């Protein structure tokens, strides 16, 4: 059975872009006769807005997008993330790191390497792979290398991860060159997105991840981590982004306003148009039924 999910961070209400992602994931699950879940990714308290999780659930309900079981809150899942981290440490895939961001930047500068990749992340130079060197542990990182071991591989062992995106087509990323050994638990003690999402997708039996194109760069890291934990890899579909007039991604960070739900049907029509869905309907239920049929033809028929 297909199981999809919508996994918002409660940093603010749904905006036009996040409604597109929610609708796409709902349509994908419903078109396949599957289940649709909602997961609140509340593992970054400094960025969260009080009451945002409840508001998001209310917005989804107003649009007729209702999950098949109560939402899962990542803030309740710390023991599961710790168990996964412990397993990775025991197997030699994860290790403690004593580096600050400035330490990483200084090391890269000293080696004459570029400071940041297009995603804005520093490519970790594997400083602590062989030990902390007397520094206190700040975070935990996943060893990105073909095989585990205290000193396995130079700074950029090629680790290509290939996958097929249902919309974007064949994809491949050299995880070592793109981000290097990446964080699983942050220096502030909070869980990193990559670990939490992988553990929870597996726990919820997610078969199909449908989300915004801005998250496509995370996919290779998540697949690599899934393999290290012996977990199944879902199918992926990354939807088009909603952009500001200047071409930047519409997001809470760029001041995106809450989606206007004075007329939920109009909001859904607008979100559907972004996905290439243009169907008639005078009620929410009627429009969603026809949009589901259109999605089945557009995205599921080619997979049959």
UniProtKB/TrEMBL annotation:
A UniProt-annotated Pfam family: tRNA-synt_1c
Co-factor binding comment: Binds 1 zinc ion per subunit.
Protein residues bound to Zn(2+): 97, 99, 124, 128
Binding site for L-glutamate: 5-9, 41, 193, 211
Motif ('HIGH' region): 8-18
Residue positions of motif 'KMSKS' region: 249-253
Gene Ontology cellular component annotations, sorted alphabetically: cytosol
Keywords on record: Aminoacyl-tRNA synthetase, ATP-binding, Ligase, Metal-binding, Nucleotide-binding, Protein biosynthesis, Zinc
The enzyme's E.C. designation: 6.1.1.-
Cofactor(s) essential for the protein: Zn(2+)
Gene Ontology terms describing biological process: glutamyl-tRNA aminoacylation; tRNA modification
Domain Glutamyl/glutaminyl-tRNA synthetase class Ib catalytic: residue ranges: 2-103, 179-260
Top-level taxon: Bacteria
GO molecular function: ATP binding; glutamate-tRNA ligase activity; zinc ion binding
Main enzyme class: ligase
Residues that bind ATP: 252
Family, similarity comment: Belongs to the class-I aminoacyl-tRNA synthetase family. GluQ subfamily.
Functional description taken from the UniProt entry: Catalyzes the tRNA-independent activation of glutamate in presence of ATP and the subsequent transfer of glutamate onto a tRNA(Asp). Glutamate is transferred on the 2-amino-5-(4,5-dihydroxy-2-cyclopenten-1-yl) moiety of the queuosine in the wobble position of the QUC anticodon.
Name listed for the protein in its UniProt record: Glutamyl-Q tRNA(Asp) synthetase
The gene coding this protein: gluQRS
